[in-house]
Design brief:
The protein is 2% helix and 52% strand. The chain is an all-beta fold. The chain has one domain. The protein has a five-stranded antiparallel β-sheet with strand order 1-8-3-6-5. The chain has a five-stranded antiparallel β-sheet with strand order 9-17-11-14-13, with no helix packed on it. Strands 2-7-4 form a three-stranded antiparallel β-sheet, with no helix packed on it. The radius of gyration is 20 Å and the shape is globular.
Length: 241
């Protein structure tokens, strides 16, 4: 079973003053891989944040990319990435909490979240097998990420002024104000850097890239001379004879 795109899990940009944000989401199937890009702009230029958490009842969520920003970004935007294997299909409230540093309020926040199916079920950095991030307050640049397995899904998200995905990518989560995600399903390409491509992206930005490992594939082994067909999988073998 190849990995495929399941759905846009959530996409939203909103104003507000609190450092605690909530949104709701429901997976299409238990076991699907979900990746979350969360971003915030502090209300006071130069104020800092050091910590971000994402929680939801019944979900085990892993931080893949810790809070990051450009060292000189004037709007003081921060981003972070979280990943999870969906435990069920029930709608849940997800809570994003930013803290640490000197920031006490926000002026803007966004979440871009995507769901994939046909993925490895392990979770963490085994399933989400590579990641990267970059930010600047001046000139936009594409981002690369290098998959650790053949046939991965590759996913990028950008906080900027993008108007569409470009190149090999299909547009995913889109908050309609220039922040969006894009995805592609690779054929082979383990160890080969994959580079984002956008229409309209320019100027200051935050960007992340994540690759997602497909589920292990079983195989049929024919044993000559015995008349047996042996079915092998990642967990064991069943011999039919």
């Amino acid at each position: 079973m190849a990995i495929t795109h399941a759905q846009v899990f959530h996409a939203l940009a909103a104003g507000g003053t609190t450092l605690v944000k909530t949104f709701t989401g429901a997976a299409l199937a238990a076991g699907n891989a979900v990746v979350f890009f969360v971003q915030i702009a502090t209300q006071t230029s130069g104020s800092t944040l050091t910590t971000c958490t994402l929680t939801a009842p019944g979900w085990t969520i892993t931080q893949l990319i810790a809070p990051f920003t450009s060292a000189t970004i004037s709007a003081t935007g921060y981003g972070a990435v979280f990943v999870a294997i969906a435990p069920d299909t029930t709608s849940k409230t997800f809570t994003v909490t930013w803290s640490g540093g000197t920031a006490t309020a926000s002026s803007f926040d966004e979440e871009l979240c995507e769901e994939f199916t046909g993925n490895d079920q392990t979770g963490g950095t085994t399933t989400f097998d590579a990641h990267s991030s970059a930010a600047s307050d001046t000139t936009y640049a594409n981002l690369s990420v290098t998959p650790a397995n053949d046939n991965d899904a590759v996913w990028f998200a950008v906080s900027d002024s993008a108007t569409n995905a470009a190149g090999i990518y299909t547009k995913g989560a889109d908050d309609t104000v220039g922040d969006m995600a894009e995805w592609a399903i690779l054929s082979g390409n383990s160890g080969v850097p994959q580079t984002s491509s956008w229409t309209g992206a320019t100027g200051a930005y935050l960007q992340v890239g994540v690759t997602i490992k497909p589920a292990p594939q079983g195989r049929i082994k024919l044993e000559g001379g015995t008349g047996n067909i042996q079915l092998e999988s990642i967990t064991g073998a069943i011999a039919l004879g």
